[in-house]
Amino acid sequence: MKNPYNVVFNDETIQKIFGFEDAESEPIDxxxxxxxxxxxxxxxxxxxxxRLLVGHKGTGKSALIxxxxxxxxxxxxxxxxxxxxxxxxxGKSDENFLLRIRQWKYGLMKIIGAKVFSxxxxxxxSLAGKLTQxxxxxxxxxxESVLSMRxxxxxxxxxxxxxxxxxxxxxxxxxxxxxDRGWEGKKDDVNRISALLNSIRDMANENPGLYFKxxxxxxxxxxxxTSDESTDKIExxxxxxxxxxxxxxxxxxxxxxxxxxxxxxxxxxxxxxQIHICYNLDTVFDKxxxxxxxxxxxxxxxxxxxxxxxxxxxxxxxxxxxxxxxFYDNSNLIRTKHLESIFDxxxxxxxxxxxxxxxxxxxxxxxLLFGMKPSKxxxxxxxxxxxxxxxxxxxxxxxxxxxxxxxxxxxxxTAKDLAQFLFKINFITARKELDDxxxxxxxxxxxxxxxxxxxxxxxxxxxxxxxxxxxxxxxxEDIFNKLSISAD
Length: 488
Hints:
By secondary structure, the protein is of the alpha/beta class. It has 23 helices and eleven strands.
């Protein structure tokens, strides 16, 4: 590699290595260098009328859409991106659900048509005015309009090529992202998104060649899905966005290798055990974690993977914070002390992220999360972050006795409901100790039925390591002594 151990971790270099927290800020060429497509990418890109990409905040939904749009354009296709500003006024003004769906349909028709005409270089007010005519078939209308205007409008060669490709394929792919911006989880918010989903289903059915790819946060989808029975018709179009630690490690390795100008074959990396590919991190990190307790002399990659909640944004945040400490320390490697110095900040951030993401569903979520802090008795007698199912219910019943919890939709809250909620938001994970003493952690998105009261799967429950410093800031050393690192 080129000058592998002479990295200066200034802000520019940190972003070039680890990437931006939000895909919108990432230069597309750099994003495509290290992007790890997964099978999710192919499922979203498939030629089906509707693909609904659902995932937790920070799983990379916007990054996937950004790469997908770039690849569509490289092929000469016509992708259209609709952002919140484009649809800020749609579906808000009418209490009648059917009228709200109609507002969405007419509004989307106008926005999509205008964007397509602008991309092709043939937009004019006359065409725009016809886009909301009753019964219009959008793809056919655009094709006929473009064909009739092709010779009469002065177009650039690139626009002519785009028009030719469009007339051959007669295909418009509409990407809708960031719908959760301003989301509060109120009944009106739920109805608005539900009306949108119904409208795109109608539009896709009525307009062959019109495809929708919509990104939704998992909590938003959950509230819409459980509040509107009509959304069962779109459930088959849902693509869940999940990550394994192996995939996140491979993406991190790809970022580092491509930063140094090296090639990275993700298929080979995915098939190779983590212990045999972790050397690729050595240009940026110490090989071993030199901390105490159960963390002593552990390979650095296992520390990183244990602290991420299977969300790519977590690894970006963790590495970025640690790299800044390395810069302040004038170090060209991220060492144990740099990670140790940011664990509390990282943990506080993940707590705040979780509160912001899910308070629309459970308004008193902050009281619930901090109520899970270990008691003085549990800190001295056991690991206060690990529970059997019975102990977890006892803990939650105690928290409920001090707070009046209620979900935003008015549903009554039980201890089991709170346990399932904590599992769903990745605050707790299912935990099992393997025969070799390593710890296997499972997440809600991997098996949604582990929290069922009807079957004992043999798992205990554990507050995710990413939250522990925020819940126990007065006993940092105790975390190292009791917290087991995740198995590969």
